[in-house]
Specification:
Shape of chain A: globular
Largest sheet of chain A: 6 strands, mixed
CATH superfamily of chain A: P-loop containing nucleotide triphosphate hydrolases
Radius of gyration of chain A: 19 Å
Number of helices of chain B: 11
Strand content of chain B: under 5%
Strand order of the largest sheet of chain A: 6-7-8-3-9-10
Largest sheet of chain B: 2 strands, antiparallel
CATH architecture of the largest domain in chain B: Orthogonal Bundle
Structural class of chain A: alpha/beta
CATH class of the largest domain in chain B: Mainly Alpha
CATH architecture of chain A: 3-Layer(aba) Sandwich
CATH class of chain A: Alpha Beta
Oligomer: heterodimer
Order of helices and strands of chain A: HEEEHEEHEHHHHEHEHEEHH
Number of strands of chain A: 10
Shape of chain B: globular
CATH topology of chain A: Rossmann fold
Number of strands of chain B: 2
Strand content of chain A: 25-35%
Bound molecules: adenosine-5'-diphosphate, magnesium ion
Distance between the termini of chain B: 48 Å
Chain lengths: 259, 294
Amino acid sequence: MSDQAVSYSIETRDLDLWYGEFQALKRISLQIKGGIITSLIGPSGCGKTTLLRCFNRINERYGYVTTKGEIDILGQNIYAPGVSLIELRKSVGMVFQRPNPLPISVYENLVFGLRIHGERSSLRRSLLDDAVESALAEVGLWDDLKDRLDARATELQLEQQQKLCIARLLPLKPQVILMDEPCSALDIEGTRAIEELMFALKERYTIVIVTHNMSQARRASDECIFMLLGEVVEHDRTEQLFLVPRNPKTADYIEGRYG
Amino acid sequence: MFTATPHILRKQRTERLAHAMFAGMALSIVVPLVCIIAFLVVKAWPSLSLAFLIEPPRNMQTEGGIWPALIGTIYLVVVALFAAAPVGVLAAVYLNEYATDNWFTRLVNLAVINLAGVPSIVHALFGLGAFVLAAGLGQSVIAASLTLAVMTLPVVIASTREALVAVPRSFREACWNVGATRWQTIRAVVLPNAISGILTGVILQVSRTAGETAPILFTGAVMYKAVEKGDLLPYRLTESCMALATHLYNLATQINGAPESLQFATATVLLGAVLLVNSTAIALRVYLRSRKKW
Ligand SMILES: Nc1ncnc2c1ncn2[C@@H]1O[C@H](COP(=O)(O)OP(=O)(O)O)[C@@H](O)[C@H]1O
Ligand SMILES: [Mg+2]
């Protein structure tokens, strides 16, 4: 790992990806910084979800996928032979469009990651309790849920479910949090709450958020990437991209001419 | 304003006709079942009693009950269940959770589809050749049960896959993305949420083989075995046994002098047993499903 490479959290070089015969990503070269929020916008089907799934190599679990090119996460090439997918996925967590807590208690959702990765003997109750409290506190749910840790997570309000889905990544000490349209199932209040949470988390984590909603990208991100048909069209500081887009296609999209 | 034109009236008539026709077809599925049951029960009435269930046949099987056949069928189905369930469920888990689309998966899928299309008499011959003769099990409960198990594997696999597919993809994604292996995902999330569907499905499918005649006729079911009234452990697995389906076949074609109601009573018990297991499994599934909230 050279020092220079570490300055970007996520770096891709000439990334191509095929689902069978269909090429979903074309020559993606990106440099995403840590400590800021990067948003990923583009019309439906342009490959935003696919790109996110590359960052923890989870694509390989979805049908048959061929990938070419390089991805460095925190300076480490994730296609290098010695890379453990388990360690990679602990460091790069994902939040989904529809909140998907597991149908078990709030508590068990939060310690799920620790349980599957830890030796049984190392999982003392006090350690788990601490992990639950600090994860919930970090996403601002501790006061609401501290008395309902045994409640089924699938019965919480949607906004709480989504925060819980973010919280359950935290005990694994991730470096990168990928969010795939995390607010699209939420109302205005829920959306605002998640955005505030992103602001609170952004200094400690690299956050990449896919969004359909251009005003959300504008409000909530520092840098913005515009994708079209599997290619990156433009990557710039968010206000720059929205005020003076360099590419006419970007201009068309943000003015709502297609999408 | 808003009055129907002749054109609209015509459309409404067609609509009523279509509705009636589809409802009639749906009803026609129920009618045969009700008729069969009513017919059987009426014909069987003189012979039906509790004693008929738990007593052995007497007097060259022209009198008495069907206990040896009833318990034999239970044996066959239960052993077949224990043979088919592990293989079928594990294969289905593999196909649904692990398999990618490659030649091996395609081969397995093709085998499953073709196995489902094999007529039961061919299964019978296969069982005779493979289990009775080649494996040296002889005509026995175990050979007959294994034959039934092979026969029922495709549907066991299909119903297990159905139960697995019903577990939302998003649960698996949640696990994968915290670094769970496939096996951890299966154990922690997939199986706990699918197990009720898997079990009821497997029981349902295997119990349907209770009615099979040919596969057990060649491999383990015999015309007569002496069994005490109500004896719960009359057969060893390496021994041949009586069974309801073959008993019915024998009553109808081989045994002279038995009253007609005896055949119908045997058929009623066979049908009743299958319906009982089916409806219990379905009720169990409905109950377990209603407790799930996704
Ligand atoms: N598992 C998959 N198998 C095959 N094609 C897929 C799969 N997932 C996505 N695609 C295709 O890849 C393209 C990009 O999809 P996706 O990344 O989901 O787009 P977005 O998130 O921008 O809407 C789409 O054309 C989609 O049909
Ligand atoms: Mg998407």
